[in-house]
Amino acid sequence: MPASVRSGVGADSFVGRETELTRIHDYLHGDSTWPLVVHGASGSGKTALLSRAVQEAQAAKPLVRLIGTTPRSSDLRGLLTSLCQELRQRWPREGELPTDIKLLEVELQEQFKKATPNNP
Could you tell me the pTM of the whole model? Predict the structure, then answer.
């Protein structure tokens, strides 16, 4: 990634992971319709890596959830509700936000279908 992308808070405290940051950058600016999943052993730096990548990707407006880092993100209903609420801010929908997990899944899939290469 260009040095200009490396500006921002904490730029001096985050070291390494250039390959991973570049892959995340390429994913965000590519045309994949699949979610990006970062996984690894506990304590391997996944949260720090994604936090850094999000700092660098603000222009791409990524939809980010770090699953399992808070009680709400560990609960499926809370996670789906949070995702659907944020997507409704970007692309409003008619009606109330569902509370049923199956209906939240349907809404999330329908929201994901709105993504295009020009409007990821």
Answer: 0.61
- C-alpha torsion sign, points 68, 58, 83, 118: negative
Provide the strand spans (E) within the chain.
none
**Total number of domains in the chain:** 2
Write out the chain's pLDDT in tens, 120 residues.
343 343 344 445 677 889 999 999 898 888 887 888 888 898 888 888 988 888 888 776 777 777 777 776 678 898 899 899 999 998 899 999 999 999 999 999 999 888 776 776
Q: How many CB atoms lie within 10 A of CB 78?
A: 13
Do 73 and 23 fall into the same domain? Answer: no
Spatial separation of the C-alpha atoms in residues 44 and 61, rounded to whole Å: 25
User: Domain residues for 118?
Assistant: 69-120
Cβ atoms of 51 and 65 closer than 8 Å:
no
Q: SS3 for 54? A: helix
Query: What is the 8-class DSSP label of residue 32?
Result: -
Q: How many CA atoms lie within 13 A of 28 on its CB side?
A: 20
